Amino acid sequence: MTELILALDVTEKKKALALAHDCAPHLDAIKLGYPFILSCGLSMVRELEEEDLPLIADFKVADIPNTNRLIVEQVFDAGFSSVICHGFTGKDSIQACVDTTSDYGGACFVVAEMSHPGATEFFHGETAAHIARLAMECGADGIIAPATRPDRVRMLRDIVKGRKILSPGIGAQGGDPDRVAVLVDGIIVGRAIYEAKDPVAAAMALNRFRSS
Ligand code: 3DU
Fold this sequence. Notes:
The protein is of the alpha/beta class. About 40% of the residues lie in helices and about 20% in strands. The chain has ten helices and eight strands. It has helices spanning about 15-25, 35-40, 45-50, 65-80, 90-105, 125-140, 150-160, 175-180, 190-195, 200-205; strands at about 5, 30-35, 55-60, 80-85, 105-110, 140-145, 165-170, 185-190. An eight-stranded parallel barrel has the order 1-2-3-4-5-6-7-8, surrounded by four helices. Helix 6 runs parallel beside helix 7. The model has no long low-confidence stretch (mean pLDDT about 95).
């Protein structure tokens, strides 16, 4: 089963809530990040809880361990069920995110390699593999890996055996769901759904991977 996760990077409150509501039956989770939270407010997390879907906080937490802990506490107190943190900060910072997450019974995902072209300057090759290994050592629930590079996802899969890979980059960034969905546990899709003429139809079309 490959989950479908909507990246709700919509900055207009009414539109965001309507999109989430209409697409919800075809989704497994909703990912919220800075665009939505900074424009609409953290209190929106409680409003979105009505959709009865897990909410993932994509704040790419990347600070010293103590600050990471304080951030992750705020994330779970706000009503999220998962958090995404960066891994380049090193083992102690990842561990702080994982430990705080487990205090709340949530899930923590670590960005191993990003999906955009510039990612190859730093987040690539052995560095990404190293981050993925650290994430596993720290007890993270999984990693984020790029749908734009299925070969890299395949390589990272060997490291994160038994845990999850969530993968953004499908559609607007050029990733092909037919190539990636079989390799991962969840695809994260934003613009290909929320900018579509018919977002519900777009979500339904991507929903077909849930049985693959
Ligand atoms: O390109 P889309 O519109 O489908 O959005 C992808 C989402 O996933 C967006 O929220 C972005 O911030 C997030 N993301 C990546 O695209 C790539 C990463 O490596 C990590 C997160």
